[in-house]
Design the sequence.
């Protein structure tokens, strides 16, 4: 269907010579891609932010899931971190505020981004929700999560300053 609108039909000679096959195969792989809007939970990450949203790393080391997020300029008080009841979804939320209030200043260039953000991460495995603590140090939020079978209940994570 989509190929009909994007590419003009090729002549029978080109079809016999195999010119059209790779292009048609590519276009067929895109058929239906926009028919449904995918749920954000179908991917391993989702963010809900207008401006700023931290980049994250998720890795495993010796039975522990380690999550690191770049949060330059944010303190532990600026972050709200929650682990879901099943121990599979980590929510990192917060707000990056401007350093200086707008007191009638005229900007010539404004490239830094501010605002509230929410970053949902689907973890590769369930983690235990007991005694989960995150640390903010040098603009990086780090949390260590111990792998387990099933987490008991949703847990608010304590974030400490380093």
Sequence:
């Amino acid at each position: 269907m989509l190929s009909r609108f994007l590419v003009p039909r090729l002549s029978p000679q080109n079809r016999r010579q195999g010119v059209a096959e790779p292009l048609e195969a590519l276009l067929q792989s895109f058929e239906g891609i926009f028919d449904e809007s995918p749920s954000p939970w179908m991917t391993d990450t989702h963010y809900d932010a207008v401006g700023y949203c931290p980049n994250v790393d998720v890795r495993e080391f010796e039975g522990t899931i380690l999550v690191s997020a770049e949060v330059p300029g944010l303190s532990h008080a600026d972050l709200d971190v929650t682990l879901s009841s099943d121990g599979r979804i980590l929510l990192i939320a917060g707000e990056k505020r401007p350093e200086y209030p707008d007191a009638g200043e005229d900007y010539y260039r404004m490239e830094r981004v501010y605002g509230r953000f929410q970053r949902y991460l689907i973890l590769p495995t369930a983690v235990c929700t007991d005694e989960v603590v995150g640390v903010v140090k040098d603009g990086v939020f780090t949390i260590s999560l111990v792998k387990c079978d099933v987490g008991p209940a949703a847990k608010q994570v304590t974030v400490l300053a380093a």
Observations:
- Residues 128 and 145 are 7 Å apart (CA to CA).
- The longest strand covers residues 89-96.
- The radius of gyration is 23 Å.
